Amino acid sequence: MHGCRDRGGHGGVPPAGHLASWAGRCPGNNRTGGKRRSGRPTRGNRWLGEVLIECAWAAARSRDTYLSAQYWRLARRISKKKAAVAVGHSILVIAWHLLTDSCDDQDLGGDYFIRRASDRARQRAVAQLQALGYRVALEPLAA
């Protein structure tokens, strides 16, 4: 999500998930009893879906943006078309937040997932050392 971090109530406005569901851009993760069922998105507004996919393809071709990084990160694991649907969903959620929170768009950057991975690795290493009984104080190396 870009810019706004307010996850509180929006004064009676349904959440972003409702808009994504209406648009048919909510793929499910339907697993039960070790069986994988269809996670296919529902049929929603056809024209909005097509516009979101076109926007996702354009976002994938952009340079050094969060949406481009998200597309290529997903395209490695799943098909490019499914990655475009996921990015289209993200675009819809971003648009919802921009309209309801009255805030400016602040792109997280193309290196967002790399920064997030390094932050998580650092936190995991510190937690492991603390679990072993060590006190950890991190200091950046002098360049």
Provide a quick synopsis of the model:
It is built from 5 helices and 2 strands, in the order αββαααα. It is mainly α. Helix 1 packs across helix 4, helix 2 crosses helix 3 and helix 3 packs antiparallel against helix 4.
Walk me through this protein's architecture:
The protein is mainly alpha-helical. The chain has a domain of 95 residues. It is 55% helix and 3% strand. The protein is built from five helices and two strands. Strands 1-2 form a two-stranded antiparallel sheet. Strand 1 and strand 2 form a beta hairpin. The protein is extended and about 55 Å long. The N terminus is likely disordered.
Q: Largest beta sheet: what is the strand line-up? A: 1-2
The parts where pLDDT drops under 50 for at least 5 residues are 3-8
Category from helices, strands and their pairing: mainly alpha
**Series of secondary-structure elements, N-terminal to C-terminal:** HEEHHHH
Distance between the termini: 33 Å
Instruction: Tell me the total number of β-strands.
Output: 2
What is the radius of gyration?
Answer: 19 Å
Q: Largest sheet, described in full?
A: 2 strands, antiparallel
Any descriptors?
143 residues; two-stranded antiparallel ribbon; 55% helix; disordered N terminus
What are the SSEs and their pairings?
Elements lengths: L15 H8 L7 E2 L2 E2 L9 H16 L4 H12 L2 H22 L10 H20 L12
Antiparallel strand pairs: 1-2
Helix pairs in contact: 1-4, 2-3, 2-4, 3-4
